[in-house]
Design goal:
The chain is an alpha/beta fold. The protein has helices at residues 17-25, 45-50, 66-76, 95-105, 139-145, 158-163, 175-185, 209-234, 237-251, 257-276; strands at 4-10, 33-39, 57-62, 81-84, 90-91, 109-119, 125-127, 134-135, 155-157, 189-201. The protein starts with a strand and ends with a helix.
Length: 277
């Protein structure tokens, strides 16, 4: 049985899916399961997939229920490690080999993301290596700052998800961010491989104004949840009172949510430093 399952959901991906599939099938590590979840496409996506004769490909057809289909993919995956992939991105040929080697060498790692290059249909490229590297220390606090793991770059240890009953939740546009938070709360180790092992497509038409608003609201919702969790851990009345005061300021437009998050990140860091002295 292959150690790795590549999990790729797709909906209406006919324009780019062939490049994505080819990049997976051309990996230098060849022994893997390739599980493609058909998330209810209405174009030629399924026909393109079915044209491949590679026995590693397993196509599962479902109606459009993205989160539910992702969770079914987690359940169906036969590999001990699940490598996420999106249908419009391109894997570096060494990605699976490098990530598997990293996770076997460091068996405590639960999620291993990578650096990537963003590219567009116009051919523009730029690094996104600012996502950190190595083990993410104090991962819950770091997640209060930002999401440092690029979803289609990650490899996840399936056993950890099963043991802690963790799955994707209905957090539109930030379901991955929520997953990392749940893993970190359960004691999972997050790691970023400092190599560009994914070409991440940023289509000019991919992110609409509405989508950006959904992503922003989803991120704020989750970061508030992370903040409340950290406050419950510290269990300090003064900190809880501060949050209440800041929320009133935010309602009156005198302080932004970002200001509140930044304040508490700095405060938690200060508390930790003082505790260590």
């Amino acid at each position: 049985m292959p150690e790795i399952t590549v999990l790729m959901p797709v909906r209406n991906g006919e324009k780019y899916i062939k490049n994505a599939i080819d990049s997976v099938l051309n990996q230098t590590l060849t022994d893997f399961e390739f599980l493609i979840i058909d998330d209810g496409p209405t174009d030629r996506t399924v026909k393109i997939i079915q044209d491949y004769a590679d026995e590693r490909i397993h196509l599962v057809k479902r109606k459009h229920q993205f989160i539910q289909n992702l969770n079914e993919g987690l359940q169906l995956a036969s590999g001990a490690y699940i490598a996420r992939m999106d249908a419009d991105d391109i894997m570096h040929t060494e990605r699976l080999r490098i990530q598997l080697k990293r996770m076997k060498k460091n068996p405590d790692i639960t999620v291993c993301g990578t650096w990537a290059k963003i590219f567009s249909d116009k051919g523009n490229e730029r690094k996104i290596s600012h996502l950190g590297y190595g083990i993410i220390h104090e991962p819950v606090l770091e997640l209060l700052k930002y999401n440092m793991l690029l979803h289609p770059s990650v490899m996840i240890k399936k056993e950890f998800l099963l043991n802690h009953h963790i799955k994707y939740q209905n957090y539109p546009c930030v379901e991955d961010y929520k997953l990392w938070f749940d893993i970190a709360k359960a004691g999972g180790i997050l790691f970023v491989e400092p190599q560009e092992l994914l070409m991440f497509r940023r289509s000019d038409t991919q992110v609409t104004v509405t989508k950006k608003e959904e992503m922003s609201l989803g991120s704020i919702r989750l970061r508030k949840e992370i903040l409340l969790y950290l406050l419950s851990v510290y269990n300090n009345k003064t900190l809880n009172s501060l949050l209440s005061d800041f929320e009133n300021l935010e309602k009156n437009k005198w302080m932004s949510n970002e200001d509140i998050f930044r304040f508490f990140v700095n405060l938690f860091n200060r508390i930790q430093r003082d505790t260590m002295v």
